[in-house]
Design goal:
Helices cover 61% and strands 9% of the residues. By secondary structure, it is of the alpha+beta class. The chain has a four-stranded antiparallel beta sheet with strand order 1-2-4-3. Helix 1 crosses helix 2 and helix 5 packs antiparallel against helix 6. It is rod-shaped and about 120 Å long. 21% of the residues are buried. The mean pLDDT is 83.
Length: 163
């Protein structure tokens, strides 16, 4: 089996894959995948799969590492979320689709974990930044209070001896 590179895009605040990539992953033609989706439309609500708008298609073409597969597609391509990718595997009902459906779910789970970890790291960095600002203020205040103590005291005026 040749190595497939599947691009994941963020569209409408969803992480999605193109129908052509998903079809290649499942070892079927894009037309067959889309036909099965249309036949089982009740299994594909908008949060599972949706058709791109013309503007979204242009966005994908701009981000795509192989824009020809999207650019020269006659209509508007469909995209699938992780749930839609799994549902597509069930409606295709082939051994390859079943294996690849499991693979896709694992890939989306790994991606979600990485996003959660990235978010956790960002929050931790913000917390450290806030702590550093508080420490900076404390150090500045301490410095201002210590500076007068470090200055040499003037010698007391001596009483003159003699006339």
């Amino acid at each position: 089996m040749e190595s497939l590179k599947i691009a994941v895009y963020r569209i409408r605040k969803e992480m999605v894959v193109l129908d052509s990539d998903l079809a290649a992953l499942y070892g079927v033609k894009t037309a067959r995948l889309n036909q099965q989706v249309r036949r089982n439309a009740d299994r594909f609500p908008d949060d599972f799969a949706f058709t791109l708008t013309a503007e979204e298609k242009r966005e994908v073409v701009a981000k795509c590492n192989n824009p020809k597969k999207v650019l020269y597609f006659r209509g508007l391509p469909m995209v699938f979320t992780e749930h839609g990718a799994l549902m597509a595997a069930t409606v295709l009902n082939s051994p390859i689709a079943a294996r690849m459906g499991i693979f896709m779910v694992r890939a989306f789970v790994r991606m979600r974990r990485e996003l959660v970890e990235e978010d956790r790291i960002s929050r931790k960095l913000a917390e450290i930044d806030k702590t550093l600002l508080i420490h900076d203020e404390g150090l500045r205040d301490l410095y201002q209070k210590l500076m007068p103590l470090l200055e040499p005291e003037p010698e007391p005026a001596r009483r003159k001896i003699g006339f």
